[in-house]
Design brief:
Layout lengths: L1 E5 L2 H23 L2 E5 L6 H9 L8 E5 L1 E3 L10 H13 L3 E3 L7 H12 L6 E4 L22 E5 L2 H9 L12 E5 L1 H5 L4 E5 L5 H9 L17 E6 L8 H5 L3
Parallel strand pairs: 1-10, 2-3, 2-6, 3-5, 6-9, 9-10
Antiparallel strand pairs: 4-8, 7-8
Helix pairs in contact: 1-2, 2-3
Length: 251
């Protein structure tokens, strides 16, 4: 695992986007296609803006998988992650091959269909974040580190639901769904490369727990430390609580 820190979100985002773009170009050059997992949420705004603006990526040869989605939410809802990905990635790039998680369909059927597609070939790169409670995708603590299923239905804890409200996706806490479809921890770790975009002071406690505490299900994103090709992108605020020796290992 590599930790990279930046003074501001824009520089963080543009640097992470360049790394992601290089991986996509290399995969397309070598195999004629690239397979990605795309995250959503406020932390991804600047990263996706920077990535979609970069030249020389043949998006027609990119296949995209969806990281997570609320159960029971329509794509017309402002909080829909399907809507997020259409507006901030699909429509901007012209990706034609993508697998969205429909929140209104039967979750078991969505999991079965998208999971089958996901297993067809390896993932070149996954874009993820770390939640305020340390979650990875919607795998809240205590996360299931062992399931082999590519997707699962999870119950969102209070901290996660409050984060969604705090980011402005919902008007009130009661409006935040209690369940979601999430890619599993093991499935995320099967990606050849992982880029975690984690800016903002509200993530500082989770970053410290996941990068300096024990690797355990109560700090789900701590599992990223076991992956041999993960880069964690932090800004000066999200990295503020890390020990000097942790930061000194960053390039």
């Amino acid at each position: 695992m590599v930790i990279r820190t930046f003074t501001d979100k824009r520089t963080l985002a543009s640097t992470a986007a360049e790394q992601a773009a290089n991986t996509l170009r290399q995969a397309i050059q070598q195999r004629g296609t690239a397979r990605i997992i795309a995250a959503t949420g406020a932390a991804q705004f600047e990263f996706l803006e920077a990535l979609t603006a970069l030249p020389n990526i043949d998006w027609s040869k990119v296949e995209m998988f969806h990281l997570d989605e609320y159960v029971g939410i329509s794509e017309s809802h402002p909080a829909s992650f399907c809507r997020f990905l259409r507006e901030r990635l699909i429509n901007k790039t012209g990706i034609t091959k993508y697998h969205l998680l429909n929140g209104e369909d039967n979750p078991a059927e969505v999991i079965r269909l998208v999971g089958q597609e996901l297993r067809d070939a390896p993932i070149d790169i996954a874009f993820v974040g770390i939640g305020e409670n340390g979650h990875l995708a919607f795998n809240d603590p205590p996360a299931d580190f062992n399931t082999e299923f590519p997707y699962l239905v999870v119950t969102l804890d209070e901290a996660c639901r409050r984060q969604q409200m705090g980011e402005g996706w919902f008007a009130a806490f009661k409006d935040v769904p209690e369940h979601a479809i999430s890619m599993s921890i093991k499935q995320i770790l099967k990606s050849a490369e992982i880029i975690a975009i984690v800016p903002d002071a509200r993530k500082a406690n989770a970053v410290k727990a996941c990068l300096e505490g024990e690797i355990n299900p109560m700090a789900p994103a701590s599992i990223l430390r076991t992956h041999g090709n993960t880069t964690i992108y932090l800004d000066q605020h999200s990295s503020a609580l890390l020990k000097p020796e942790t930061l000194s290992a960053a390039p």
